[in-house]
Amino acid sequence: MAKMRSKAGLAGAASLVTAAMLLASCSSGSGAGASSKNAGASSKNAGASSKPVQGVTSKYITIGTSQPSTGSAAVAGQGFDIGLTKAVKQINKEGGIDHHKIKLVKSDNQFTVPGTLASFRQLIQQTKVYAIVVPAETAGIPSAWPLVKQTGIPVFGPYEPATPTLPSVFELVATQEPQAKVEVKFLASKHLTKMAYIGINTANGSENLSGIKAELPKVKSAKLVYNTLVPSGSTVNTEVLAAKQAGAQAVILGTDNATADLVMKAAAAIGWHPQIIANTSAAGTGGSTTVGPAGTAANGFIGALTTALPTATTVPGVKEWMKQGKPAPGANYDLVAYESGMIFFHIMKMMGHTLSWKNFDKTAEKLKNYKGGKVFAPLTFGKLPHGHSGANSVAFAQYTKGTWTQISGFVKP
Hints:
35% of the residues lie in helices and 15% in strands. The protein has 14 helices and 12 strands.
């Protein structure tokens, strides 16, 4: 899920659509203004810490999330919201964290860069949450990194933004560049060595291209015959035709969902059927956000996979997720958010009574080969500059006749 153009203004994007207080009964709280006075208040008795900890009171820990709950990526945003809500309900049912119940505040970033920055500001500076968990808006999240760096607030499991190296940011899945490297190796293993790249002209598009160029010299006979960066959401007929004329056997996408859809339709319209492959953000692997609008043009499309598919019912974490309620329309995002939340809470349990941000960072870095529900590849964190990417592994799934099927195991770049 990457950035798409929106006419929504900053004021609209900054609004909090929900400030939900999720206890075992899952009752709803009041608006963001009210929650900033109560739910986000600091406590001088936060565990064993002698200093106030933002978002922690004697009874509650308030976390936040920033999602495109409205706008062009609403299906994904609502899926993330629902999945994280399920995780909060489950942990509260189990007794919470260090005798604290968890409250969740949801902020709508409307899938825009200014909206995402405003959303982070609202959560950090006004609502004063303890942490921001599994935020999603691939192109917009980096706009908030300076604020995150300044405050030191934990940001856990951000959904595939350009790779940061910040002490309080922990990523769960392979980001854009490593996914692109594995895509090149995968295509070459299928003897598809003449490759084209179409990406969007953002940091994410450039990071994908960097990954491709870094991997090509390592793969025998592989060649990038055409590459371009286009504005988000733009028509791509000219670019698709150019890729065909360059003799590409496969097209790698580093785009948003809508542009990926347009590429597939443009190729089908000229009777061209290369292997089209995309990272998880562009493909929406396991869901319908990309393949649904593309219709029959999506048949055979391959998406990178950084977690188990929501249909993988033999995976323990998927089984547990399914017990929490009906999957959201964006089931893949629902599953990712649920499991991300459960991993976040696992780390918090490891912290004992000291709930400071510093201790969160220190404790997360101790996580080694953690398998959890096996939704993600085994997670290992460590020290920066490279230790905050937990599972740097990628698999692939193919969409055929309305069904996603995993077609490879997980491999590292």
